[in-house]
Here is the input.
Amino acid sequence: MSLNHIRPWRNIYRRKSRQIMVGNVPVGGDAPITVQTMTNTLTTDVKATIAQVQAAADAGADIVRISVPDEASSKALRQIVPEVSVPIVADIHFHYKRGIEAAEAGAACLRINPGNIGDEKRVREVIKAARDHNCSIRIGVNAGSLERHLLEKYGEPCPDAMVESGLDHIKILQDNDFHKFKISCKASDVFMAAAAYQQLAEATDAPIHLGITEAGGLTSGTIKSAIGLGNLLWMGIGDTIRVSLSADPVEEVKVGYEILKSLGLRHRGVNIISCPSCARQGFDVIKTVEALEKRLEHIKTPMSLSIIGCVVNGPGEALMTDVGFTGGGAGSGMVYLAGKQSHKLGNDGMIEHIVEQVEKRAAEIEAQEVKAAE
Ligand code: SF4
Here is the structure.
């Protein structure tokens, strides 16, 4: 149960945006903030792309984007879309015809880059294809590929130029009576991206897709994204997110969820609260947490687990988690269930026992939710 009504310092007031549908997934309005990723296989390698989309979906991706650089990729998309369980966004650059083909191939959304999609006539053709095939559109502004006239006007990529690019394209869509769109304003510089997104959030009620582009590798990109996206989400800005990492798309999805979980904006799976460990630890905290993270990947029910090395912080943390384990002396520790001290547990076999307790608690939470919905 959320206790945010008595903990006002935890509340985030989300910007009110219009809601659109990306396939069967709502984006914007009061819909949960969705997590996206993008495949990095060759789109023409249909089997590998389907496998990667599904791996991302299994990790929790709500929407997956696929690059459509050539006609062969649009053809591959036609085979991929029916085989995957999440809506597909076709990533279109340079060739407006790929946008038309992707809409025909069953993409749920077309991502077009205003800086390189071509003149208004071409954009109108893409809009027509989107409308004919019930696709949404993402206007994907990127600081690295702004229109030449904006670079000349502003001298260099900057938030004002990015927002102007986005608003110009919103106008084209609206002038063509097309309203099923969302927008992003990405930059690899967190300051530029954050400033652009804040301006954009003021200037439109379209759903906003957040991202820090080309953020870097797993560690550096995670930190950069957590700072950039985290700040914007904390301000209530953002309806869907993609963490861009030079890493497996599954990692992007995991990081996306961790950012949302940290802000209490979305919950999925086990939120493990663990201490860094020190000489006081009653068991090997780091190895235990590593093992539990792997063993508990299958749990999708939102719940919490505290794994704390000793009694300094263990009992306090355990009071606030669904399942807790606190290290003690002489090779054993204490298990807490639903915030209450429950039973002693030897360090040997603790992983198995904790996994069992978490699975049991997850089943209880699910049963309670089913009952509440009846
Ligand atoms: S909870 Fe205990 S074991 Fe963990 S870091 Fe703190 S003092 Fe060390």
